[in-house]
Amino acid sequence: MIWNTLTYTGWGRVHRATAQVARPERTTSLAAVQAETGAPAFGMCRSYGDSCLNDGGHAIDMTRMDRLLGFDAETGVLEVEAGARIGDIARRFAPDGWLPAVMPGTGFATIGGCIAHDVHGKNHHGAGSFGQHVVEITLMNGGKLQKVSSSKNVKLFRATIGGMGQTGTIVSAKIKLLTCKGDIITVTERRIENLDHFLEALDNSQSTYTVGWIDATATGEALGRGILEEAETGYGLVPDAKRSKPVPFNAPKWALSNPVVRLFNAAYFRRVPELGRTSVKPITEFFFPLDKLLEWNRLYGKRGFHQFQCVVPVSEAGVLRAMLDKIGNAGLASPLAVLKRMGSGRAGLMSFPMEGYTLAIDFPNRADAEPLIAELEDITEKAGGRVYLAKDATLNPVHLVKMYPEVAKFAKLVSEIDPDGMYETDQTRRLNIRSHA
Amino acid sequence: MSETWIILGATSSMARAFARAVSRNGAQVLLAGRDMKDLEASASDCSLQGAEIAEAVRFDARDANTFAPIVQRATALEGMINVAVFVGSMPTQDQIDADPSFIAGTVTDNYAGPATFLQVIAPAIEERGGGTVVGVGSVAGDRGRIGNYVYGSAKAGFHTYLSGLRNRLTRSGGHVVTVKPGFVDTAMTWGIEGMFLVASPDKIATDILNAVDKRKDVIYTPGFWRLIMGIIKAIPERVFKKLSV
């Protein structure tokens, strides 16, 4: 059968959708699906909000189209099907000295998803966004294949990168891998006492990979304290990554209650000695730290959680203090928040990155979470920043134009390709994206 | 030492998972099926996963003319010759009730076709003094049930054939593994109601590879199906005929 009625969720599990889902395994079966109806595609559903959902409609699960189609060891260009997972590619190629140029925080993200959200990684300040390393994308619309690249169908190429699947099904792509020294990584961790020191440390970091973990429960003097991780790939032998373990059930409410999180964060902060430390580990442990805990989203219980991620311009770094203040006082914070310096690299009309600082933080889905996130979104908009749509489940559509100034151009092109709105998702409807055409 | 795996029905997701697994061990793989374009893509994948050689070859269970070229290609390669049979088809019992001519095709795809191929290649396997045949049957072949008995009987025939072939190949150092999967999450079962305890194709592939390494004769995968089928087989026919399980 082509269609299977499934109820599924994004990674945050706040929203769910019941849809008729097809799961093609070959190009011909994908064409057969599209002959019946156009539908948005999804991969591993690692986006947090509703960008992979199409409640009451149809959807295409691309995870079975996950093959490596070709690799040119001269140029490092890998052709790969859209359902392949970035972590599998890293594990396969790192021992040969190649790594995907950009990797998001989970290895379970698919190539299609990485393109559709123009994801960034811990090296954004140097390497830019994922889409900047995409050489060519093969799209399918109405059963017909079409190749787009920076030299062919450029407009469509730029709309597809970060385009949330609105320009058709991403079937495969050619992505440029970067050379690395090997499949181990040397990580230096040090404590950072407060936000000002953090921003300074991020600005001064010379490392290829840099990420900051923030204790979002800290207030006052310690506001914005955390741990800075800087890393470089290397070669040598380290014990294999430990096998992933699943979270067996939904955690009870108290598991991530405020006192527990405070204790956890304080312990996590002190885990790193005062003078810092350097360790060597398998690359996957650094790039995908939470993948060790399969289905860790269950830790937030069955009500799920939101992740708020914004980026604000360098000149507006001050608003981060206001945000962390609100978050610390709200008592809603989750164990770990992430702060990073972003470069200007972005590849699509609807790409998230901008030069500045990006802050990502989880909130359990309690009654006061959405009002708090709404406040943070307001602050972000006023600061000239933007909210990351791969994480979003709450953004007020009035903020969209200011955050994504090219949305009109995007919506116009998308409406030409998909006049009946068959590729719309719960997110594009909520954000009213097509209304900008 | 190099070895060859001929994978019949290589476009199926179970076969793909198995082909990947043997490719990671550096095998030479011949991916046999009808959708050549798709097989070419799988062959590229197998090469990049570590296969020494990976080629797409045409195989149609209903066309015996496609068999000899595959045997020729395999015998031209060095090392032991192994075959994994994933080919099969499963029309619904309703389709068959409406048009009994579906039976011939079902028997050919699940039993007569692959058995003919194995018969053709058996001397080549014997000549090399080793080699493994993996035959994917089904728990449906263990007992005829109202919902699926044509498919089940074709698989039962295949099981019996494999048992005989095992008897034969043992004499030359070869081996046959009969694999009886329960419900597997494939395109064939996608959207079918009443599935439970569904296993991923990767899990099945891992189980098969373990069985090959340990030279097991008959495996159920996932393993708990041995228990379930043990119970189902133990029900007296006089009771069973009134059940719809």
General description of the model:
The complex is a heterodimer of chains A (437) and B (245). Chain A is of the alpha+beta class and 437 residues long. Among the domains of chain A are: 4-61; 68-181, Uridine Diphospho-n-acetylenolpyruvylglucosamine Reductase, domain 3. Chain A is built from 13 helices and 20 strands. Chain A has helices at 27-36, 86-93, 111-116, 124-127, 154-160, 195-204, 258-271, 283-287, 318-330, 369-382, 400-403, 407-417, 426-430; strands spanning 4-9, 16-22, 41-42, 58-61, 68-72, 77-81, 98-100, 134-141, 144-149, 169-179, 184-192, 209-214, 226-234, 245-246, 277-282, 293-294, 305-313, 337-342, 356-364, 386-387. Chain A has an eight-stranded antiparallel beta sheet with strand order 15-11-13-12-18-19-17-20. In chain A, strands 5, 6, 7, 8, 9 and 10 form a six-stranded antiparallel beta sheet that branches. Chain A has a four-stranded mixed beta sheet with strand order 1-2-4-3, with no helix packed on it. Chain B has a single domain, classed as 3-Layer(aba) Sandwich (Rossmann fold). In chain B, α3 (67-76) runs parallel beside α5 and α5 runs parallel beside α6. In chain B, β1, α1 (13-24) and β2 form a beta-alpha-beta unit. Chain B is an alpha/beta fold. Chain B has nine helices and seven strands, in the order βαβαβαβααβαβαβαα. A seven-stranded parallel beta sheet of chain B has the order 3-2-1-4-5-6-7, with helices on both faces. Chain B has helices spanning 13-24, 36-49, 67-76, 93-98, 102-127, 149-169, 201-213, 225-234, 237-240, and strands at residues 3-8, 28-33, 53-58, 80-85, 132-136, 175-181, 218-221. Chain B is 47% helix and 16% strand. The chains are: A alpha+beta (437), B alpha/beta (245). The A-B interface holds A 1-5, 23, 25-29, 64, 67-71, 81, 92 and B 11, 13, 16, 35, 37-38, 41-42, 44-45, 48-49, 187, 190-192.
| Continuous helix count of chain A | 13
Structural class of chain B: alpha/beta
The CATH topology of chain B is what? Rossmann fold
What's the mean pLDDT score of chain A? 94
